[in-house]
Every structure is written in C-alpha cells, then in structure tokens.
Amino acid sequence: MTIHGFILRNALRNKRRMLLTVLSVALSLFLFVTLQTALRELTQPATSEEAALRIVVRHKVSLGEVLPEKYQSRIERMPGVAYCMKLTWFGGIYKDERNFFPQFGVDAEKLFPIFAESSIDPLQREVFIKEKTACVVGSKTMQRFGWKVGDRITLRGTIWPVDLELVIRGVYYGGLDETNLFFHHEYLDELLGKRGLVGTFWVKVTEPDVIPGLMERIDAAFRNTNAETKTETERAFQLGFISMFGNIKLLIGSISSVIVFTLILVTASTMSMSIRERSREIAILKALGFDGRQVCGVILAESFGLAVAGGLFGCLGARLLFDQVDMYSLSRGVFIKFDVTPHIIVTGLLVAAGLGVVSCLLPAYTSIRASVVGGLKELD
Questions:
Q1: What is the pLDDT of residues 175-203, one digit of tens each?
Q2: What span, in angstroms and rounded, lies between the C-alpha atoms of 122 and 254?
Q3: pLDDT for res 98
Q4: Angle between the 3-11 and 292-324 helix axes, to the nearest 10 degrees?
Q5: DSSP strand E in the chain: where?
Q6: Quick check: 276 and 315 in contact, CB under 8 A?
Q7: Cα separation of 80 and 376, whole Å?
C-alpha cells in the first residue's frame, strides 16, 4: 500500500464521521463566503470612470438636514462644473412598507448627462423631461413590481408630508444602480409649497483634476452660513451613507471569527477521535522506523484533505447557488447584486486549508510524543 492510499484509507475508515465532518466544514465555509460577499457588496460600492467625475454637496451636519435651493446657481458658476443637479431622497411607500426601493427628486434635464453610464430610449427621456408628474424607473424595479411604461403609481410620503402621483414614462438600463425611481424635483417642491429645500446637489466636473480644489471652493463659499456644506466624492458619500447602518465590518467580522473558531473545534475534535482510535497503528509505524515528522505528515495530510474538501463544497456551492438566485428580489432590494468573486472563494479555501493544519497540531503532537509501548498497550 502506498502512503497516499494509507492516508485515504484512514480518512474513509469511519465514513459517517468523515461525511459529517466534510459537511460541517462545507456549511460553515458556505456561511463564511456568504457573509464576506455581503460585506463586500455593502462596503465597496461599484465605481466607474463616470463616477470619478461626480461629487456630492450635502449639509455639513448630516444627511437629515437640507440645503437652500439657491445654492445651485452659485455652484454652477464655479470653474470646473459641467452640471449641477438637485437630488432629494423622498423615501415614500408604495402600497406596503415592505416594498422598499430608492426614490429621488431630480432636475430631469440633467439626470442622464450626469449619470451618463445609464441608458434610456431618447423618446422616453424627452417625455420625462416635459411632463411634470412623469418618472423614470430602473429596469430591476420595473421587473420587481411588474410595471410597464404608462402605469400610474402613488408614493405615500413618510419623510415629506405629501404623496406623489406619478406616471412611468421611461425605463433606464445599466449604470451603477437599476433600482432607483427618479421624478421631477420641481413637482415635489410645488407640493411642499415652494419651500426651496434640497437634500443634496450632485455635481459633474469637466475633469478629475479639478475635484480637490472645487470641493474646497464650494465649502468655503457657504462657510459661516445657516446651512454649511460638506462636499465629497461619490464614493466617499456612498461609504458615509452605508456607515449610518452601524459598524457593519465589525459585526460581520465578529460572526466570521466565531465561524472560524467553531470550525477549529469541529475539525480538532474529529482528528482527536480519529487519532485516538489509531494509537496502536501509530505505535506500529514508529516501531517500523517511521519518525515523528513522517507520522505527523500522515495525520496532517488527512486533516488537510478533509478540511479542503469541505471548503471546496462550501465555497463553490455558494458561487453556484448565488449565480442562480435573484438576490435583489430575495433581499427585497437590499442587495442589488451578489457576486461571489474569485478572491472571496480563494479566501475561503485558504481559511479551510489553515484550519486543516491548525486543528490537527495538538492531536498530532500528542500522538508522536506517546511511547511505542504505551500505544501498543492502549488498545490491546
């Protein structure tokens, strides 16, 4: 019998225990990969070349505060500004509170020049611009609710004390987020009594090099006013918005650590039982001339193999499953996409391999320290 056959025979000695161990590792690594993918989607917003040309002007205190509409004209006159658009979160309810999706009031004629990576039928865009109660909706939200162009929808106000009666006049595709609904900011302002309030201003610059100086000039222009501003890049704004949900990294990191620790205990327990049952065989190997490193290598190979097999099932299973599942619908719009990247899979496999090594160190050390006589006597 070869050394590889010997290792495989020992791994398959107790098939039920082997199967349960592999499944335990696979399930734990599946959960680990799922959490890491969720963390990536929540904390690493997608970006593009167009996004590098956008900055966001918001209230210095928080996103819950509003800015005066009159700021827009001053920002538009600054060197380096190509477009400046009002964008205000509405946060309305469509029929049921569970039907969450993002809704924004915007300057209709500037929406697609600023978000140039999104595409829409030119005729639909023209109708949207001309009709005050019109809205355009991302393809994912259209599919989610079974809407079609021409449908009338009502959004019940929660943050703002008004309801919006909208007509869907267009569908946009591509871009960073196909879940949004955009309507005329002017329509919202009229319903509110022309109060001239804006949540944020989105600015598209002529070239990336002007961004640092432009952000300083915008904030300086409104310093010492009743509504001071904080200007930041689109990516920084997205990360700041995500941080409002709390320390997601700490939460998911803590759960992942518990998973890894549990895996160590499971694998170490399995290897301890397996080695204890083979104390006599290990003693015979020593008597035949196998040194401690060779015995340790056999035990390590077995533990490593079980852990990596479970890791492959768990990581690749997660990849295959999430490729087939519509996570946007399943998560009710929380996750726009849910891509298990090769980097996450490799990380999961490295965790499995590391666990296979670490979990067998103590059982292996104990077995090679035991005397040959003691090992022969133990199972006699």
A1: 767 889 999 999 999 999 999 999 999 99
A2: 49
A3: 83
A4: 60
A5: 54-59, 67-68, 81-89, 103-106, 118-120, 134-138, 152-155, 164-174, 181-184, 197-198, 200-205, 229-233
A6: no
A7: 83
Unique residue bearing structure tokens 């006599």: 280
Question: Which residues face 197 on adjacent strands?
Answer: 68
Closest-CA residue to 352 (of 317, 310, 316): 310
Q: Which long-range contacts (CB under 8 A, 24 or more apart) does 294-299 make?
A: 295/364, 295/367, 295/368, 296/364, 296/365, 296/368, 298/3, 298/6, 298/7, 298/10, 299/271, 299/275, 299/360, 299/363, 299/364, 299/367
Specify burial of residue 137 (Cβ count, 10 A radius: 0-12, 13-18, 19+): buried
- Note the Cα 314 to chain centre separation in Å: 19
Residue 199 corresponds to which tokens in the numbers above? 């949540």
Q: What's the count of helices (H) and strands (E) in the chain, helices before strands?
A: 15, 12
- To which residue do tokens 């080695």 refer? 275
**Burial of residue 353 (number of CB atoms within 10 Å: 0-12, 13-18, 19+):** middle
Q: For 333-363, how does the pLDDT look when each residue is reduced to its tens digit (9 = 90+)?
A: 556 677 888 999 999 899 888 877 777 776 6
Return the structure tokens found at 349.
């496999």
The answer to whether 13 touches 302, Cβ cutoff 8 Å, is no
User: Which DSSP string do the residues of 107-145 spell out, in sequence order?
Assistant: -HHHHHHHSTTEEE-HHHHHHHHH-TTEEEEEHHHHHHH
**Cβ atoms of 337 and 328 closer than 8 Å:** yes
Domain ranges of the chain: 3-45+247-378, 66-226
pLDDT attached to residue 122: 95
Q: Provide the token pair at 184.
A: 């005329």
Q: Is 358 exposed, middle or buried (0-12, 13-18, 19+ CB in 10 A)?
A: middle
